[in-house]
């Protein structure tokens, strides 16, 4: 923010040195911009480099939250099913991957059922 300044006694300037984009941040792909409609997140690599920032990758530590999330779901305090757009038999997995690759409309999360049932 090039024009950042303190204007009121309660204002503060904060230098952000670390941030992240989680894989579940689907709002980046909801089509607000032309880039997002293509499944791309806008990112200024020049400014990133100029400010001497660094980037890392990795998976969040899901195991830390599994039990807590399981209990919330079991007690009907969380309902994750809204994320699931399709349920497929295991032999339909290639169809699911194809739809994800082309970012087909409506494909958000797929459950694969190895036994074919639901």
UniProtKB/TrEMBL annotation:
The alphabetized UniProt keywords are: Metal-binding, NAD, Zinc
Positions of transmembrane segments: none
Reading the lineage from the top rank, the first entry is Bacteria
Listed cofactors: Zn(2+)
Gene3D superfamilies assigned = Medium-chain alcohol dehydrogenases, catalytic domain, NAD(P)-binding Rossmann-like Domain
Matching InterPro entries = GroES-like_sf, NAD(P)-bd_dom_sf
Q: Which family does it belong to?
A: Belongs to the zinc-containing alcohol dehydrogenase family.
* PANTHER family reported for this sequence: GLUTATHIONE-INDEPENDENT FORMALDEHYDE DEHYDROGENASE, ZINC-TYPE ALCOHOL DEHYDROGENASE-LIKE
Q: What is this protein called?
A: Alcohol dehydrogenase catalytic domain-containing protein
Organism this protein belongs to: Plantactinospora alkalitolerans
